[in-house]
Amino acid sequence: MAFINDKSIEIKDSFLNDKGTFYKSVVEEIERPLIEHALEKTLGNQKKAARILGLNRNTLRTKIRKLGINVERWKIT
Question: Fewest CB within a 10 Å sphere: which of 9, 26, 39, 64?
């Protein structure tokens, strides 16, 4: 929750200055850390991370590519 509290002022400013983009701004700020946290907890296992997040595995993979997340950094070699 601290992450959300820290970003609240930025989000409010974005909302006031750029109407119509509030939802997109919030999703962009929160989606990456959520996905990265799930991948960290599952050691990069996308199927397990998708299950934790309540997403289809292909949807998660699409989001990972869109956000440029490197899944390999959590995998144990």
Answer: 9
